[in-house]
Amino acid sequence: MGCWDLVAIVTNCTLPQLPRPRVRAARLPGCPRVMDSPNSQSLNFPTTSRAQLRPLGVSIDDSLFTDTKNTQKRKLSQKRKTLLSGSFSIGGHLSPWPRYISDQTILHNRKPCSDDYRKRAGSLQQPLGTTKPRYLEQLENYLRKELLLLDLSTDSAQELKLQPYREIFEFFIEDFKTYKPLLSSIKNAYEVMLAHQREKIRALEPLKAKLVTVNEDCNERILAMRAEERDEISMLKKEKMNLLKLIDKENEEKISLQTEVTKLRKNLAEEYLHYLSERDARKILIADLNELRYQREDMSLAQSPGVWGEDPVKLTVALKMARQDLTRTQMELNTMKANFGDVVPRRDFEMQEKTLKELQEQLESLRDDYEEVRKEHEMLLQLHMSTLKERDQFYSELQEIQRTSTPRPDWSKCEDVVAGGRDRWHMLAEGKNSDQLVDVLLEEIGEGLLREKDFFTGLGYGESIPPFLRFDGMVENKKPTKKEVVKLLKNAWKERITEEQKEKFPDFFFSFLERHFGPGDAMAWAYTIFEYIKLFHTNEVMSQFYAVLMGKRKESVYIKQMETIAQLLKEMTNIDSQNEGLLTVEQLSTVLKSTFPFKKDERIQELMETAGWHPSISNADLLDYRMLFMEDEEGQSVPFVQKLWEQYTVEKDEYLNELKQELGLELNKEVTLPKVREALMNIDPSLDKQTLNHYLRQAFQLPMTEMPEEGEEREEGIVTQLQTALEQLQMNDIRRMGPREQEPAS
Question: Where is each Translin-associated factor X-interacting protein 1 N-terminal domain found (predicted)?
Fold first, then answer.
C-alpha cells in the first residue's frame, strides 16, 4: 500500500488522483514502512485547533498568528500524548500493518474515501483475517469523538468538521519525517486554495444581494407592464364587442330587408296572375260581343235584301270576303296573344323595376358598410399585433440600452482643447448631437496631427491603390488651410462641369493638380488633399468630393443637386421683380411647390420652417431668400441647403424601398432585367423610356451598346443580385418622375 492510500484511509478524506502505476502494496518502492521512521513515536507537530478556526475573509497579524500557533502546538502535543499513552506497536515501534497482508492484495485506482472503496477494502480484509493496528483504531476513535463533539447547526459547520481531519493530517506529517516536506506542501496548497475560495465567496456576496435587488426591480417592471397590457387588452375587447354588436345589428337589418324583398316579389307574382286572368276574361268577352254583332248583321241582311239596293250575289261575295278578312284578323289576333300573352303594362313594370332598384341599392350599401366594418376590424387586429411587436421590440431595446448605456460626456471640457477657445467650440457644437460632436472633435484632433506631419509615406503601385496616389517614397505635406482646400475643390468641380472630353474622375483630378501645381508638386498635393477630404466628414464639399473620388457616389448626383439649387434660386429671382432679395411666405411656398411638384406637403413644410417660417408669421411677411443659399469661408452651407440634400437622400431611400417591396425578393436573391423594368414602371408610371433605360443600365452595369430593347429574348439572360442592383442605383442620381397611381377606392 502506498503513502497516499495510507493517508487517505486514516484521514477519511479524498485526495487528488495522481497518475501512478498499479503495483502491489507490499512492493511499492520509495514509500518506507511506518516502523522504519526513527522518530515514529514523537508526535510533537503544530496544528490548528477548532476553537482557533478563522472565519472567511479575515486577515490576522503575523505575530499574533505565531503566538496562536505555538499555543496550538502545545495543545496538540498534549492531545497526541493522550492519544499515544498506550502501547500499540510491535517492539516499541508502530505496527507494520498492512505489510503482512498477502501479496495478492493489489491497490486499485479508486478514490480512498468513496463508498465503493470502503466496501472493497472491507471485502479484502475479512477473508485475510487481519486486524487494524491499534494506532489506526485509536486515530479513528479520536476522529469520531471529535466529530460528535462538533456543533453542526451553525453556518460554519463545514469549517468545524474539517478541523479534526487537519489534526489527523498534522499527526502524519510529524510522524513521517521523510515525507514531511511533501505532505506539508500538499497541505499548504490545499489551505491556499481554501483561502482563495473563501475570498471569492466573500466577493460574490454583494453581487448576490445586488442580483436579488435587480431581480425584484425587473419583476416589478414586468408586473407593471402586464397591468398595462391587461388594461389595453380589456379596452380592445370592449371595442371588439361594440364592433360585433354593430355587425349583428347590420346583419339583422339585412335579413329584414331580404324578407321584405321576398314579400314584395310574392305580391308582385300574385298581382301578375290576377292581371293575366283579367286580361283573358276581357278578351273572351270582346270576342263574344263581336260574334253577336256579326250574327245580328247577318240576320238583318237576310231579312231585308233590298235595303242596300245591291245584288244579293254581290253581297254574298262581299260577305264571304269579309268573313275571310275576319278569319285572317282573328288569326293575327291569336298570334299577338300567343306572342304577348305574358306582357305586363309598362307602368307597372317600371314601378316594380324602380322598387327593385332601390332595394338593390340599399342591399349594396349595407354590403359596403359591412365590408368596411370588416376591413376596419382586420386593420384593428393588425394594428394590435404590430403594437404588441413594437412593444416587445421597445422593451428589448430598453433593456439593451439600460445594459449598455453610458453617462453623457461633458462636452464643455473640450473648450480648452480646441483651438479658438470657448467661442469657437460653441460655434462648432451648435445644433449637433453627441455623434456629430465626436466627429467634430476627431476632425479638430486630426487637423492638428496633419499640421504636425511634414511628410506622407507613399502607398506604392498596387492595383488597389487609386491612380492619383500611386507613388513609392516620401511625399511632402503642403499643409494648406481648410479654406484653401475647399476653394481648390470648387475650382475642380467647375472645370469638371465645363470639360468636353470626359475622362475618369480620379484621372481628371490628378490632371487638374498637374495643370495648377505642375507635375513635380501634383503628387504631394494629391496626398495632402486626399488626407484632408478623408478626415473632414462634416464638411459638405469635402465629404461629397471624397465619395465621388473613391467611387462611392456618381458625380452626376452632385452635379444634379447643384443644378437643382441653381434652378430654385433662379425661380425665386424671377418672382422678385424689384430685385430686393425678399419674398413673401406665400411666394416662397409657391416656388417650392412648383420646383418640387412631387414632394409631400410635410416636407415642403419642413423647408418652409428651415427658411424661417413659423406659425406666428403671416403669408404677407417677407423673407430674405438670398440668405438661404449662402456659404461660409469653409464651404459649409446654411441649414436650408442641408435640408434639401437630406430630403433628397431620404426620398431616394424611399424610392428604392418601394422598388424592393414591389419585387418581393430577398436581398441575396437574383433578379432579371424584365422584372426590374416592370417594377420601376409600377412604382413610377411617369418614367420615360430614356430615363428607364438609364436606370436599368446603372442597376445591371451594362454599356449603352449592350442594352437590349424591351421584349427581346436576351433580356431574361441578364440577371444580377438584388442587393448589388440596389447599391448601384443608390450610387446614382435616382429621382421620382411622377406620382404613383393610387388604387381605386372601394
Answer: 140-249
